[in-house]
Amino acid sequence: MSLHFSWFTPTNGDGARIGLPKPEREPSLNYIVNVAKMAEHVGFDGILIPVGTPFLDSWMVGSAVVHHTSRIRPLIAIRPGFIAPSLSAKMAATLDRFSGGRIDINIVTGGSPHELGQDGDFLPHDERYERTKDFMGVLQTLWNDQHVDYEGPYFSLKDAQLVPSSIQPRIPAFFGGASEQGKEAAAQYGDVYLQWGEDVEEVGKQIEDVRAKAAKYGRTLEYGIRIHVIVRETEREAWEAAERLVADIDPAVEQRMSSYYREADSVAQQRMSRLLQGDYRFGKHKWAGIGRVRKGAGTAVVGNPEQVREGLQEYIDIGVTHFILSGFPHLEEAQRVGQLLLPQFKDRRTGSVSYA
Fold it and tell me: Could you tell me which residue ranges the Luciferase-like domain spans (predicted)?
């Protein structure tokens, strides 16, 4: 079984402490490029570029990463509904050519009505996923066929043609969604089904459900986890680092995050918020304290290199082969994770990704 490890691009700021009114480091071009270069240098296979109202534009950041690296695969997150799928297909194909065929796409439907509304998107939850399926149908039709007539519930094309074509025969699509509609979209159109680092039993249940749904379409997916890691030479040092990370949380920032959890209609986000209880610890060496002030991926594996490997191994044992990791600050932690953790998996890794 081949494992793939990716890092994360902090495009809304970074620092050694989280939950501050302003980030310690602004997301400058120079800093983002340095994070990507460090991730490539220490051996990560890919790097996720997030999408959303608080983040820099993912396409522009993806282009910057492509032009300052030579091997690492940018995983560019995009949202259906804001750009026509035909234009998104062209942008992806262009960047695929510029990169020499080393980009992936992360389709993000969105789970916050408030945040989506800030960008003018007011579709309710279930309709958003129906639009996502239509969007992905257009992308894959254009990537596969020379001339396209397409008629769907949200998008229509007449004699469409994708110029330029991509280098990759099929640009890999990562997709996350814990609702029934989200899992159905992943099963039908996704290549890697991506979840946040929840309890292993819950993650396994979602994998089995998506696997069964994909089988109905004659498809086989791969599975991924998005999670933070806090790894140090000793367990004590790791937990001390975890406590320092959240030691100066601004109460107003934490209150805003609590409000976000209450209004979000994302099934996965609602499950993640339930981990914010007690001392935030769960499973083997896992901690949900980051979720106090960070939406989405709010959990971490904490410990010495062997313990963090053990925490990730739980997911590997249920079929996960893709890990998108991060740590604060992302520049220094990319180096640390590359030195302490990635060698723990050296016999089971490959940088190649190919989907039929």
Answer: 4-322
**Residue 147 · residue 160 · CB < 8 Å:** yes
d(CA 53, CA 119): 8
Q: Which of 20-24, 142-146, 165-169 has the lowest mean pLDDT?
A: 142-146
Q: Which amino acid is at 288?
A: A
Q: How far is CA 70 from the centre of its chain?
A: 21
Task: Say if strands 192-196 and 156-160 run parallel, antiparallel, or are unpaired.
Answer: unpaired
Q: What is the 3-state secondary structure (H, E, C) of the chain?
A: CCEEEEEECCECEECCCCCCCCCCECCCHHHHHHHHHHHHHHCCCEEEECCCCCCCCHHHHHHHHHHHCCCCEEEEEECECCECHHHHHHHHHHHHHHHCCCCEEEECCCCCHHHHHHCCCCCCHHHHHHHHHHHHHHHHHHHHCCCEEEECCCCEEEEECCCCCCCCCCCCEEECCCCHHHHHHHHHHCCEEEEECCCHHHHHHHHHHHHHHHHHCCCCCEEEEEEEEEECCCHHHHHHHHHHHCCCCCHHHHHHHHHHHHHCCCHHHHHHHCCCCCCCEECCCEECHHHHCCCCCCCEEEECHHHHHHHHHHHHCCCCCEEEEECCCHHHHHHHHHHHCHHHHHHHECCCCCCC
Please name each of the domains of the chain with its CATH number.
4-227+322-348 (3.20.20.30)
d(CA 232, CA 66): 30
Q: Model-level pTM greater than 0.90?
A: yes
What pLDDT, on a 0 to 100 scale, did the predictor assign at position 124? 84
The full length of the chain comes to 356
51 in Cβ contact with 9 (< 8 Å): no
Over residues 330-342, the pLDDT tens digits come to 999 999 999 999 9
